[in-house]
Structure formats: C-alpha cells, structure tokens
C-alpha cells in the first residue's frame, strides 16, 4: 500500500544508482575547437554516478549475468579490473545485494584500491603480469569465481555485454546529441568496450560515413597491430595513464576490428600537458586516459581537416590520480617532469 502511494509520476526522476547511469553531457572544448577549426566534442563520462565510463559496462555485465541465471540472489560478482569497472561493480553489487570481489594489478593508484574497500568490495591487488601468465589478475578472478558457489566472473574484457552497453547507450547518446552531425570518433581502449560499442553504433547510423580511429598509449599493442595488419604487434614502452593500453585483441574489439579506419599512438608528453591545459583553459579536471583521448581528437581533426566534428570520451576525473599527477617525484620517475611546459609547472604542487 505504502509503496503505491510513493510511486508518483515525476517528470524527470531516475531510479537509484543504476537509473543515474548514462545521459552524460557532450562538452564542446572551446580553445581546441578554435585551434583546429573543428568541433572537438567530449562525452563527460566522469558524470556517471560511480565517476567513470565503466558504470555502463558494469551495469550491463551484471544485468546479463542476472538474465542468464549465472548470478542469483545473494551471489558474488568477481572481476579483474584496473579499478573503474570495479568501482562501478561495487556500487551496483551494493545496490543489488551481491558480494563483490576485485582483483587488480598492484600498479594502480592507492586511491582506487581504497575506494573499492570503502564501497564494501574485497580487493586483491596482485603483481602486474602479462595475460599469458596464469597469475594475471583476470585469471585469478576467474579461478576465484569458479572456487565458490553462486559467483560469476563478469569477464569485462571478453564479455560483449560490455560492448553492448556502449552500443545501446553511449553511442546513441552521441548520435542524438550531435543530431547525427559527427564526422569522427576516437578513444583509447582498456577492454575496448567503449571504442567498439560507439564505433559500431556510429558506423551503422551513418552508413559508414563516420571515421573511427583507435588511440593508443605507449606500451599497448593495438596501434602497431593495426598498422602492421597483425604482423608486428609491439608493446614496448609504458605510460603514466591508467586503465588503458592492451596486450591483445579482446573479445570486445574483435567483432569491430574491420571497422577501424586508423590508429594513433599518443606520447605521454602530449597527454600529460593536455591534462594541465584542460584544467588551465577549460577548468576541467581529468584523468590521463581522458586527456590522451583529447590529444587523439585533436590529431584526428588535423587529419580530417577543418569544419569537421570529432567526438571523444572523458573517461573519469583526475581525483583518483591526483597524488601522482601533481607530484614532482612521480612525474620524474616516469621521465615526464622535464616535458611539462613552463606555464603548467605551477600545477606540480606535491
Ligand atoms: N579510462 C579509464 C580511466 C579506465 O579505467 C578505462 C577502463 N579500464 C578506460 C579508459 C577504457 O575503457 P574500456 O574498457 O571501455 O576500453
């Protein structure tokens, strides 16, 4: 009876944490748009309730497991994640009454590990080893799920519910927000779910007119894989960015690989300076994967030429990485301090 009284038709109210996922703004970056003569548009995924683009995929992988019966009342969600999927999953698990177990490489920021703990997840930071190694965080997550009853390994890297979340939500939002007037899309990949889902949707809607460029940090194989047609995948190097870069073609990227028009490799020196520039000129505080994406959008604008509309993704804010991004010793360790442009040195306050 009481619940019937409470169910009123409000014009614009969403239902709980999950209802608040998505419908993020598309922000025009003014100074970069002026500089390139293009519209540089960035999808503000940091506005999702768990703070990142990964809330969408986290919801879809849980929903998928519920639908196919692998996850039942009181069950456990287990995942290997660089952090953001884990944060999304931890929120959703709390909201839906599941336990949440997270394996992550111990190279990730302490803030992400702590946040997961605050959200009630059990966290296992493990040595960062390659996918081929059985001790890789993903394999450990799978084995953990297999070892306990009513548990599901959500397998974000190869589970195409991830791609589907962006095909059904992020992609259509971009299409609607631009009225279909989009010429290019670019973003980096972790699982590749965002890139793949948005690319698939925009290619379908535009009948192939929209170009899609993969953006890669150093240390990731996708750029070289694409450029050498799979002949010489090269993962040498490393990056200060977190949550992106990949050593293989994941199950989310495989289905759309043939839709990729080109690949860009973005040096850390450009991504880190863009981070301070966006803070300086636009007042937007972002993590490194977002600023790499913005550099890629600018590169794509130069390639496609003036008058085009390029869309990219702002995956999360800089808060989780602040103790690194503003620390002189961290930047020195990464060999980046000397590359910071003089006008941005004021940001290095730690
Ligand atoms: N940026 C950040 C900060 C992330 O945590 C992730 C996911 N690991 C990505 C970008 C990449 O998203 P996707 O998994 O959809 O490729």
TrEMBL record:
Superkingdom per UniProt: Eukaryota
Single GO MF descriptor: cysteine synthase activity, acting on O-succinyl-L-serine
Tryptophan synthase beta chain-like PALP domain boundaries: 20-316
UniProt KW keywords: Amino-acid biosynthesis, Cysteine biosynthesis, Mitochondrion, Pyridoxal phosphate, Transferase, Transit peptide
Tagged with keyword Transferase: yes
Family: Belongs to the cysteine synthase/cystathionine beta-synthase family.
Protein name per the record: Cysteine synthase 1
High-level lineage: Eukaryota, Fungi, Dikarya, Ascomycota, Taphrinomycotina
